[in-house]
Give the backbone structure.
Amino acid sequence: MPYGYHGKILRVDLTTGETRPEEIPASIYRRYLGGSALASYFLLKELKPGVDPLGPENMLVVMTSVINGTVISGANRYTVAAKSPLTGGFGEAEAGGWFGPELKAAGYDGIIIKGQSDRPVYLWIHDGEAEIRDASKYWGQLSGDVQDGLEEELGDKRIRVLQCGISGERGVRYAALVNQLKHYHGRSGLGAVMGSKRLRAIVVRGKAKLEAADPEGRKRVFDWFKQNYDREHDTMHLYGTSRGIPSLQADGILPTRNFRDGNFEKYLDISGKTMFDTILTNQGTCYSCSVACKREVAVPELGVTPKHGGPEYETIAAVGSLTGVGNLKMIALANQWLSQYVLDSISTGAAIAFAIECYENGLLTKEDVGGLDLRWGNEEAVLQLIHMIGRREGIGALLGEGVKRAAEKIGRGAERFAMHVKGQEFPMHDPRGKKGLAIAYATSPTGADHMEAPHDPLYEGFGIKEFNPFRMLGLNEPVDRMDASAKKVRAYFYTQAVWSMYNCIGMCDFVGVTTGPLELPKLVEYVNAVTGWDLSLWEMLKVGERANTMARLFNVREGFTAADDKLPDRMYEPMGNGPLKGKSLSREEVQSMLRTYYQMCGWDPETGVPTPAKLAELELDWAVAPVAEPVGSR
């Protein structure tokens, strides 16, 4: 009997209506641990190259980990992965909340869903049983109504619901997934994959409890965390992810007006401190997490309630400074509608900012945008575009394709306003002021992604701070945020392995170091106490590297090349205002960083393809065959 996990997943075929459990060998769990790595393993093993991301052949993989749902803070995150309809490549996103732990309690470590139903359905998993049920009455409903309806139908307020929303039903290419209306798999368009399968929701409930191999050892780490975490003074708990807005403003890298500028004149109006002082009603949390960084807000005069939580930093910047909107209450309303439609707030805000700049430059007319006055800071127009995108109506149908496809259709130079990598829109962080992000955005397998590794300001503390959480990795010398040398690449490469490992074991980046207090040796100790294994930190970091390499292989198989590891031209243009006014990236320094990064990864420095030697070292030699003949350009 395994400790910490069940040793089985649920297989679902929506075409035939079949559900069946499948046992997974313990050796697979130790090699991949769960989450991102185990999801990548199944996608690379089973998904044929070249399939339509919105067709029945695509797979939707939901995967927990060996510690998911245990008592320590942060171990509640889980992975959903598929071929992305936004990029045509590897798609993955993690979420916290309550769904992952409840799936484990329902008797499964993960779910693999194939096929396509001929009618709307939902999947009901409870205490080891699985049913495919009719969801016709939920099709076309907003997320809050679906949550309420399922709770009433099943007679249980404690069910955990993962759903795709109207945007997923209608094929918005960056439709998200959400559990309990507040916890998002935001990126990669996974909601569109679920919607294309006519799977409106996955509902889980269970009572199973998994024992630890060493209960006392697990408790020691749990007690250590309680003693070493000072919630009263933790600004992440107090002000949430938007705590950093004043710092980004001071550094000149608060994304403003579609990344033309780095300073926003109304930055204090949209900060985490302002939210705390005005509209915050509660500091929400995820399963068994004492950090409680989630925001819950209310704006009664606008109909905003805590039911859908509150805006995180990415949302505030994406529909705030990026579009020129400085009204926090209206941003909270926008956040509620993004939740109701289940849209990725990053891509939605980026698509709206793209449209505003196209309108400003005469590439979109008032008639094209349904009579809206698309100017910076027009909050009513931003709200209206959210509705149009969520329902794929009018200009929203075009913007719902993502900025890459929208720019290609508009033409006439619209591409220069499309801020994306591989088709996925830029997150709310500017590589011109944090140069390690240039590698992260360019090489992330899902397209531009800010969660590949810690950001550059951390590297400036190496060797200076009294506590350097990465000293044990040999990162002992400070590296300036504007450095673009091999020292920066090394710092990024090592820390990326840590954050990739977090995605494999379901650990939150805001609990694990560097943004949280859970030290790496304590995390290793905890995993071993739960599982009964004797993992080393080195072995766990190799799991992170393995996951990143498998995602790269997936993209190579789908026709991506090193030429796709590129940033938009705006990153090589001068910043418009703020402390970094006139500053830009250099194409030469970015290419040098990329080449060095490829070599550190064990990828061919010219093609970016993982070498046979690296695959053998990571026990991925089985994955050589699928990438022998790429399917060609997308």
Q: What stands out?
A: The longest helix spans residues 537-557. Residues 244 and 272 are 8 Å apart (CA to CA). The chain has 23 helices and 16 strands.
